[in-house]
Amino acid sequence: MSTVHIIDHPLVQHKLTILRDKNTGPKDFRELVEEVSLLMAYEVTRDMPLEEVEVETPICKTVGKAISGKKIGVIPILRAGLGMVNGILRLIPTAKVGHIGLYRDPETLKPVEYYCKLPADVEERDLIVIDPMLATGGSACAAIKYLKERGAHNIKLMCLLAAPEGIQLIEREHPDVDIFTAAVDDRLNEIGYIVPGLGDAGDRLFGTK
Fold first, then answer.
1. Which of 172, 165, 151, 157 has the alpha carbon at shortest distance from 195?
2. Is the pLDDT of residue 153 over 80?
């Protein structure tokens, strides 16, 4: 069963509240999404293995710790996932970035793929799939499926907000994928939006409707 990690750090929760505010404009919204993504990435990468390395300080030689050769891949689900990429890359600048383009059919609410470009060594990387909203879970579920079909096997899902319905779908279809979110909201409304949520993350990021 997937483990749901709720990142309740005070800074994350404070910034999430501003993101929810309908009066927060696109510029501030983009900056906040990037900041929250950076803060959340600390927790998502908490289990990265370390190894001892020798370094020489200005005083003497000593032994410190360094990341043990793990390669990270960041996979935003287009288009809203793009708003989270730079925050993670500020923390892990050597990560490679793949893209999966999906949109939700307004009639069926099912995901439709229109683009997929991944690192050539995707099967060797620890992957973080990112999307601000885990609503119905259809897009995230499809993206994870595409990654597994291409050989990926170590995948985490990171979102700003999640609905119980989306969590249940990931737990059922991909029980090996842990979910990292800043909050689990109440439910979905009749058109598949998270309640209380923060609206359409893509539209708020890019100033569209």
1. 165
2. yes
